[in-house]
Structure to design on (45 residues):
């Protein structure tokens, strides 16, 4: 069930297979990007 819900945390917790490292103090996962296209590009292919 956990894998069907894309819940790796729940899956590994249920089988006692988690490795909890805590905060890494890196900004690896702090970056988000968003691409905004003009409306006239909506139909390009």
């Amino acid at each position: 069930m956990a894998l069907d819900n894309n819940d790796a945390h729940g899956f590994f917790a249920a089988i006692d297979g988690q490795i909890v490292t805590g905060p890494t103090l890196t900004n690896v996962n702090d970056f988000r990007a968003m691409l905004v296209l003009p409306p006239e590009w909506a139909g390009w292919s």
Notes: The chain has a mean pLDDT of 81.
